[in-house]
Amino acid sequence: MTDSFFHPVSGFDLPRFAGVPTFMRLPLVTPEHPRFAEVDVGLIGVPWDSGTTNRPGPRHGPRQLRDASTMIRAQHATSGMRPFEALNCADLGDVGPNPADIPDSMARITAFYDGVKAAGIRPLTAGGDHLTSLPVLRALAKDAPLGMVHFDSHTDLFHSYFNGTMYTHGTPFRRAVEEGLLDPKRVVQIGIRGTMYDAEDRDFAAANGIRLILIEEFHARGPEDVMAEAREIVGTQPIYVSYDIDFVDPTFAPGTGTPEVGGPTSYQALQVCRELSGLNIVGADMVEVSPPFDPSGGTAFLGVSILFEILCIMAEKGQ
User: Which DSSP symbol is given to 36?
Assistant: First the structure.
């Protein structure tokens, strides 16, 4: 049983519409807090979308995700997992970005996650656009490259944008492979679809051993079979999980900047997370939730439900 300090506020003690929202109603434990080093998994907001190339808005994602997460309760309905009793979990606050300077923002993010890693905390991140993953990986993979399970409708493996702009939400994993942060032969990208500028990203994946599972294959084989292959690809060594909400069909998750039709249902969105069981997850993120395109709040609630699913898998090691 974990210290009760790290338990979320119950809806029986304070209504879920009341109080200051934190991720899953957990205590706010910033790096200056005396109990920071006691945290096992820290939920972190990265309110930043300077890598967005079309519809902006994910900079507002962490705030909406926090609000939606007040509906997350203590126990997983299927597995029975009670993650807040298996691990010390806390909201570590937001990384303050520089909205006018991409390199400075990435340096700030990496510095924050350097401190998280040094404290032995596994981060669970709420973005932010998908460029957020790169500075996080620069901290987590500083010692050795990681494997990755990546849920998305896009590969984010492009070389550049416009006249050589190297850092956008379409390039983070190209940079991560080039910088030695990811072992491409232990990377699997699931759900890829949509119209294309060209095949440059897919060619890069093929040349470097990255496994792409296109949406047609996902639907033909089903989540369980696809995820069995994903687990085999990444193996038992440390991995990162990156989950772009646009992996999910826009019928279920319209609140994102680059939606692509033909995707998984909201149930399948949860199912693939459950199939991560047994993997050595050192960090994970949920990105591209865009409140301006999510008037009902349903996308954000799906996003935090996915975060809870991932948290439950991360808690397996804490039992």
Answer: G
